[in-house]
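User: What would this chain look like folded?
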Amino acid sequence: MGTFRAIRIDKAEKGTVVALTQFDEAELMEGDVTVRIEWSTLNYKDGLAVTGKAPVVRRFPMIAGIDFAGTVEQSSHPLWKAGDKVICDGWGMGETHLGAYAEKARVKGDWLVRLPEGMSARDAMAIGTAGYTAMLAVLALEKHGLTPKQGPIVVTGAAGGVGSVATAVLSKLGYHVIASTGRVSETPYLKALGAAEVIDRNELSGPAKPLARERWAGGIDSVGSTTLANLLSMTKYGGAIAACGLAAGMDLPSSVAPFILRGVCLLGIDSVMCPIEQRKAAWSRLASDLDRTKLAEITHEIGLDGVIEAGARILAGQVRGRIVVKIL
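Assistant: Here's the prediction, encoded as C-alpha coordinates.
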Protein backbone atom coordinates (compact mmCIF):
# COMPACT_ATOMS: atom_id res chain seq x y z
CA MET A 1 0.00 0.00 0.00
CA GLY A 2 1.23 3.50 -0.81
CA THR A 3 -0.05 6.95 -1.65
CA PHE A 4 -1.16 8.57 -4.89
CA ARG A 5 -2.17 12.02 -6.10
CA ALA A 6 -5.83 12.95 -5.79
CA ILE A 7 -8.14 15.94 -5.51
CA ARG A 8 -9.46 15.54 -1.98
CA ILE A 9 -12.52 17.27 -0.53
CA ASP A 10 -12.81 17.59 3.25
CA LYS A 11 -15.61 18.99 5.37
CA ALA A 12 -14.78 22.36 6.95
CA GLU A 13 -16.51 24.44 9.59
CA LYS A 14 -17.99 26.45 6.76
CA GLY A 15 -18.28 24.60 3.48
CA THR A 16 -15.48 22.37 2.20
CA VAL A 17 -11.73 22.40 1.66
CA VAL A 18 -10.51 21.15 -1.72
CA ALA A 19 -6.88 20.41 -2.53
CA LEU A 20 -4.63 18.35 -4.80
CA THR A 21 -2.77 16.17 -2.32
CA GLN A 22 -1.50 12.67 -1.55
CA PHE A 23 -4.17 10.09 -0.71
CA ASP A 24 -3.46 6.87 1.17
CA GLU A 25 -4.37 3.77 -0.83
CA ALA A 26 -5.50 2.13 2.42
CA GLU A 27 -8.38 4.64 2.52
CA LEU A 28 -9.88 3.43 -0.77
CA MET A 29 -13.41 2.07 -0.42
CA GLU A 30 -14.59 -1.49 -0.95
CA GLY A 31 -14.67 -2.87 -4.46
CA ASP A 32 -13.54 -5.92 -6.43
CA VAL A 33 -11.58 -4.05 -9.12
CA THR A 34 -8.70 -1.62 -8.69
CA VAL A 35 -8.02 0.61 -11.69
CA ARG A 36 -4.98 2.69 -12.58
CA ILE A 37 -6.69 5.83 -13.89
CA GLU A 38 -5.20 7.40 -17.02
CA TRP A 39 -7.79 10.01 -18.01
CA SER A 40 -10.80 11.75 -16.51
CA THR A 41 -12.88 14.70 -17.61
CA LEU A 42 -14.68 17.78 -16.29
CA ASN A 43 -18.48 17.85 -16.11
CA TYR A 44 -20.90 20.39 -14.65
CA LYS A 45 -21.39 18.20 -11.57
CA ASP A 46 -17.61 18.09 -11.07
CA GLY A 47 -17.60 21.88 -11.09
CA LEU A 48 -20.26 21.92 -8.36
CA ALA A 49 -18.21 19.49 -6.26
CA VAL A 50 -14.81 21.17 -6.45
CA THR A 51 -16.21 24.67 -5.90
CA GLY A 52 -18.67 23.66 -3.18
CA LYS A 53 -21.44 25.58 -4.97
CA ALA A 54 -23.93 22.78 -4.31
CA PRO A 55 -24.06 19.88 -1.82
CA VAL A 56 -23.00 17.25 -4.36
CA VAL A 57 -20.56 15.51 -2.00
CA ARG A 58 -22.27 13.34 0.61
CA ARG A 59 -19.36 11.70 2.44
CA PHE A 60 -15.97 12.96 3.61
CA PRO A 61 -13.20 12.72 2.79
CA MET A 62 -14.12 12.52 -0.90
CA ILE A 63 -12.11 12.26 -4.08
CA ALA A 64 -13.86 14.34 -6.72
CA GLY A 65 -14.53 13.23 -10.30
CA ILE A 66 -17.50 11.31 -11.68
CA ASP A 67 -15.90 9.32 -14.51
CA PHE A 68 -12.62 7.77 -15.62
CA ALA A 69 -10.91 5.58 -18.18
CA GLY A 70 -7.93 3.42 -17.32
CA THR A 71 -6.39 -0.02 -16.94
CA VAL A 72 -7.37 -2.73 -14.47
CA GLU A 73 -4.57 -3.29 -11.97
CA GLN A 74 -6.18 -5.94 -9.74
CA SER A 75 -9.49 -7.79 -9.95
CA SER A 76 -11.45 -10.49 -8.15
CA HIS A 77 -14.44 -9.92 -10.45
CA PRO A 78 -15.08 -12.70 -13.00
CA LEU A 79 -15.44 -10.32 -15.97
CA TRP A 80 -12.23 -8.35 -15.46
CA LYS A 81 -8.52 -9.12 -15.30
CA ALA A 82 -5.34 -7.08 -14.97
CA GLY A 83 -4.61 -5.20 -18.17
CA ASP A 84 -8.24 -4.73 -19.28
CA LYS A 85 -9.10 -1.23 -20.54
CA VAL A 86 -12.25 0.09 -18.87
CA ILE A 87 -14.59 3.07 -18.54
CA CYS A 88 -16.59 4.02 -15.45
CA ASP A 89 -19.28 6.73 -15.34
CA GLY A 90 -21.49 7.78 -12.45
CA TRP A 91 -22.60 5.22 -9.85
CA GLY A 92 -22.14 7.92 -7.18
CA MET A 93 -18.42 8.42 -7.81
CA GLY A 94 -17.40 11.83 -6.51
CA GLU A 95 -20.61 11.93 -4.44
CA THR A 96 -20.91 8.85 -2.22
CA HIS A 97 -18.00 6.78 -3.58
CA LEU A 98 -14.40 7.95 -3.94
CA GLY A 99 -14.04 9.34 -7.43
CA ALA A 100 -11.92 9.77 -10.51
CA TYR A 101 -9.56 12.72 -9.93
CA ALA A 102 -6.90 10.36 -8.66
CA GLU A 103 -4.24 7.99 -9.89
CA LYS A 104 -6.19 4.99 -8.55
CA ALA A 105 -9.78 3.93 -7.96
CA ARG A 106 -11.38 0.86 -6.40
CA VAL A 107 -14.89 0.16 -7.67
CA LYS A 108 -17.38 -2.63 -8.26
CA GLY A 109 -16.69 -4.59 -11.42
CA ASP A 110 -20.39 -4.43 -12.27
CA TRP A 111 -19.96 -0.67 -12.79
CA LEU A 112 -17.40 -0.99 -15.58
CA VAL A 113 -17.80 -0.88 -19.35
CA ARG A 114 -15.09 -2.21 -21.65
CA LEU A 115 -13.35 0.46 -23.68
CA PRO A 116 -14.69 0.08 -27.25
CA GLU A 117 -12.24 -1.28 -29.80
CA GLY A 118 -10.44 1.50 -31.64
CA MET A 119 -11.27 4.10 -28.96
CA SER A 120 -8.45 5.44 -26.78
CA ALA A 121 -8.87 6.17 -23.07
CA ARG A 122 -8.37 9.84 -23.90
CA ASP A 123 -11.15 9.73 -26.51
CA ALA A 124 -13.45 8.03 -24.00
CA MET A 125 -12.98 10.88 -21.55
CA ALA A 126 -13.25 13.51 -24.27
CA ILE A 127 -16.74 12.00 -24.57
CA GLY A 128 -17.11 11.43 -20.81
CA THR A 129 -20.33 11.52 -18.86
CA ALA A 130 -21.51 14.52 -20.88
CA GLY A 131 -21.21 12.69 -24.20
CA TYR A 132 -22.51 9.43 -22.79
CA THR A 133 -25.53 11.32 -21.43
CA ALA A 134 -26.08 12.93 -24.83
CA MET A 135 -26.10 9.48 -26.45
CA LEU A 136 -28.57 8.16 -23.84
CA ALA A 137 -30.83 11.05 -24.87
CA VAL A 138 -30.44 10.20 -28.57
CA LEU A 139 -31.30 6.54 -27.85
CA ALA A 140 -34.40 7.63 -25.89
CA LEU A 141 -35.60 9.81 -28.77
CA GLU A 142 -35.03 6.95 -31.22
CA LYS A 143 -36.96 4.58 -28.94
CA HIS A 144 -39.79 7.11 -28.98
CA GLY A 145 -39.81 6.73 -32.76
CA LEU A 146 -38.21 10.01 -33.78
CA THR A 147 -36.52 10.12 -37.20
CA PRO A 148 -34.96 12.96 -39.24
CA LYS A 149 -38.02 12.96 -41.55
CA GLN A 150 -40.25 14.21 -38.73
CA GLY A 151 -38.56 17.58 -38.48
CA PRO A 152 -35.86 19.55 -36.66
CA ILE A 153 -34.37 18.72 -33.28
CA VAL A 154 -33.41 21.46 -30.83
CA VAL A 155 -30.37 21.16 -28.55
CA THR A 156 -30.06 23.56 -25.62
CA GLY A 157 -26.81 24.51 -23.94
CA ALA A 158 -25.37 23.58 -27.30
CA ALA A 159 -21.84 24.90 -26.72
CA GLY A 160 -21.44 22.88 -23.51
CA GLY A 161 -20.34 19.26 -23.15
CA VAL A 162 -23.70 17.51 -23.55
CA GLY A 163 -24.83 19.96 -26.22
CA SER A 164 -21.66 19.75 -28.29
CA VAL A 165 -21.73 15.94 -28.48
CA ALA A 166 -25.49 15.87 -29.07
CA THR A 167 -25.16 18.35 -31.93
CA ALA A 168 -22.34 16.38 -33.55
CA VAL A 169 -24.11 13.01 -33.23
CA LEU A 170 -27.54 14.20 -34.35
CA SER A 171 -26.15 15.98 -37.39
CA LYS A 172 -24.24 12.84 -38.42
CA LEU A 173 -27.47 10.86 -38.10
CA GLY A 174 -29.13 13.23 -40.58
CA TYR A 175 -31.17 15.50 -38.29
CA HIS A 176 -31.68 19.21 -38.88
CA VAL A 177 -30.22 20.50 -35.62
CA ILE A 178 -31.27 23.82 -34.09
CA ALA A 179 -28.61 24.76 -31.54
CA SER A 180 -29.63 27.08 -28.69
CA THR A 181 -26.86 28.94 -26.86
CA GLY A 182 -26.29 31.94 -24.66
CA ARG A 183 -23.05 32.55 -26.53
CA VAL A 184 -24.05 33.45 -30.08
CA SER A 185 -20.37 34.20 -30.72
CA GLU A 186 -20.00 30.40 -30.79
CA THR A 187 -22.10 30.17 -33.96
CA PRO A 188 -19.11 29.19 -36.19
CA TYR A 189 -18.16 26.49 -33.66
CA LEU A 190 -21.70 25.08 -33.59
CA LYS A 191 -22.06 25.19 -37.37
CA ALA A 192 -18.77 23.27 -37.64
CA LEU A 193 -20.26 20.59 -35.36
CA GLY A 194 -23.19 20.25 -37.74
CA ALA A 195 -25.84 22.67 -36.46
CA ALA A 196 -28.13 23.83 -39.28
CA GLU A 197 -29.39 26.81 -37.26
CA VAL A 198 -28.22 28.65 -34.15
CA ILE A 199 -30.66 30.56 -31.95
CA ASP A 200 -30.14 32.77 -28.92
CA ARG A 201 -31.22 31.14 -25.67
CA ASN A 202 -33.21 34.30 -24.89
CA GLU A 203 -35.82 33.00 -27.34
CA LEU A 204 -36.50 30.26 -24.76
CA SER A 205 -35.97 32.13 -21.51
CA GLY A 206 -39.24 34.06 -21.08
CA PRO A 207 -42.37 32.75 -19.36
CA ALA A 208 -43.68 29.75 -21.31
CA LYS A 209 -47.11 29.76 -22.95
CA PRO A 210 -49.19 26.62 -22.42
CA LEU A 211 -48.87 26.06 -26.17
CA ALA A 212 -46.73 28.03 -28.60
CA ARG A 213 -46.03 27.72 -32.32
CA GLU A 214 -44.77 24.24 -33.21
CA ARG A 215 -41.05 24.50 -34.06
CA TRP A 216 -39.40 21.10 -33.61
CA ALA A 217 -40.15 17.39 -33.52
CA GLY A 218 -37.95 16.83 -30.49
CA GLY A 219 -35.04 18.04 -28.47
CA ILE A 220 -32.29 17.40 -25.95
CA ASP A 221 -32.28 19.77 -22.98
CA SER A 222 -29.52 20.21 -20.41
CA VAL A 223 -30.85 23.50 -19.02
CA GLY A 224 -34.19 22.80 -17.33
CA SER A 225 -36.51 25.37 -15.76
CA THR A 226 -38.14 27.93 -18.10
CA THR A 227 -36.08 26.76 -21.06
CA LEU A 228 -37.49 23.23 -20.82
CA ALA A 229 -41.01 24.62 -20.36
CA ASN A 230 -40.64 26.61 -23.58
CA LEU A 231 -39.24 23.63 -25.46
CA LEU A 232 -42.27 21.55 -24.50
CA SER A 233 -44.71 24.27 -25.54
CA MET A 234 -43.06 24.49 -28.98
CA THR A 235 -42.78 20.75 -29.69
CA LYS A 236 -44.77 19.34 -32.61
CA TYR A 237 -47.64 16.90 -32.19
CA GLY A 238 -46.35 13.51 -31.01
CA GLY A 239 -42.83 14.79 -30.41
CA ALA A 240 -40.56 14.36 -27.40
CA ILE A 241 -37.97 16.21 -25.36
CA ALA A 242 -35.19 14.32 -23.57
CA ALA A 243 -34.29 16.18 -20.36
CA CYS A 244 -30.90 15.55 -18.79
CA GLY A 245 -29.80 18.71 -16.97
CA LEU A 246 -30.66 21.58 -14.66
CA ALA A 247 -28.14 24.35 -15.38
CA ALA A 248 -30.92 26.95 -15.05
CA GLY A 249 -32.72 25.29 -12.14
CA MET A 250 -34.76 22.29 -11.01
CA ASP A 251 -38.18 23.91 -11.42
CA LEU A 252 -40.44 23.31 -14.42
CA PRO A 253 -42.94 26.19 -14.85
CA SER A 254 -45.02 24.42 -17.49
CA SER A 255 -48.57 23.13 -17.91
CA VAL A 256 -50.15 19.85 -18.95
CA ALA A 257 -51.20 21.36 -22.30
CA PRO A 258 -48.32 19.98 -24.44
CA PHE A 259 -48.90 16.50 -23.03
CA ILE A 260 -52.68 16.24 -23.33
CA LEU A 261 -53.30 18.42 -26.42
CA ARG A 262 -50.27 17.52 -28.56
CA GLY A 263 -49.27 14.15 -27.14
CA VAL A 264 -45.78 15.43 -26.37
CA CYS A 265 -43.57 13.22 -24.20
CA LEU A 266 -40.97 14.31 -21.66
CA LEU A 267 -38.22 11.68 -21.48
CA GLY A 268 -36.09 11.68 -18.35
CA ILE A 269 -32.40 10.81 -18.80
CA ASP A 270 -30.35 9.55 -15.85
CA SER A 271 -26.69 8.74 -16.41
CA VAL A 272 -25.71 7.96 -12.80
CA MET A 273 -27.63 4.74 -12.06
CA CYS A 274 -28.42 3.81 -15.66
CA PRO A 275 -28.51 -0.02 -16.15
CA ILE A 276 -25.32 -1.54 -17.51
CA GLU A 277 -26.85 -2.80 -20.78
CA GLN A 278 -27.97 0.73 -21.69
CA ARG A 279 -24.46 1.98 -20.90
CA LYS A 280 -22.94 -0.61 -23.20
CA ALA A 281 -25.37 0.34 -25.98
CA ALA A 282 -24.56 4.04 -25.56
CA TRP A 283 -20.78 3.51 -25.68
CA SER A 284 -21.12 1.21 -28.68
CA ARG A 285 -23.09 3.87 -30.54
CA LEU A 286 -20.62 6.59 -29.54
CA ALA A 287 -17.83 4.51 -31.06
CA SER A 288 -19.67 4.44 -34.40
CA ASP A 289 -21.80 7.61 -34.52
CA LEU A 290 -19.50 10.31 -33.16
CA ASP A 291 -17.04 11.81 -35.62
CA ARG A 292 -13.68 11.45 -33.89
CA THR A 293 -12.28 14.41 -35.84
CA LYS A 294 -15.03 16.66 -34.49
CA LEU A 295 -14.42 15.25 -31.03
CA ALA A 296 -10.76 16.25 -31.20
CA GLU A 297 -11.71 19.77 -32.32
CA ILE A 298 -14.01 20.36 -29.33
CA THR A 299 -11.58 18.98 -26.72
CA HIS A 300 -8.74 20.52 -24.78
CA GLU A 301 -6.55 19.05 -22.08
CA ILE A 302 -5.59 19.95 -18.54
CA GLY A 303 -3.77 18.18 -15.69
CA LEU A 304 -5.03 17.41 -12.21
CA ASP A 305 -3.59 20.73 -11.05
CA GLY A 306 -5.94 22.58 -13.40
CA VAL A 307 -9.22 20.95 -12.33
CA ILE A 308 -10.24 23.28 -9.49
CA GLU A 309 -9.84 26.44 -11.58
CA ALA A 310 -11.60 24.83 -14.55
CA GLY A 311 -14.44 23.78 -12.25
CA ALA A 312 -15.17 27.43 -11.51
CA ARG A 313 -15.10 28.26 -15.22
CA ILE A 314 -17.58 25.55 -16.19
CA LEU A 315 -20.10 26.88 -13.65
CA ALA A 316 -19.63 30.37 -15.05
CA GLY A 317 -20.49 29.12 -18.54
CA GLN A 318 -16.98 29.81 -19.80
CA VAL A 319 -16.16 26.30 -21.01
CA ARG A 320 -16.78 25.32 -24.62
CA GLY A 321 -16.96 21.67 -25.61
CA ARG A 322 -15.06 19.11 -23.59
CA ILE A 323 -12.14 19.16 -21.15
CA VAL A 324 -10.06 16.01 -20.61
CA VAL A 325 -7.97 15.60 -17.48
CA LYS A 326 -4.65 13.82 -17.88
CA ILE A 327 -4.06 11.75 -14.74
CA LEU A 328 -0.92 9.76 -15.67
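The chain is about 30% helix and 25% strand. If you want, I can go into more detail on any region.
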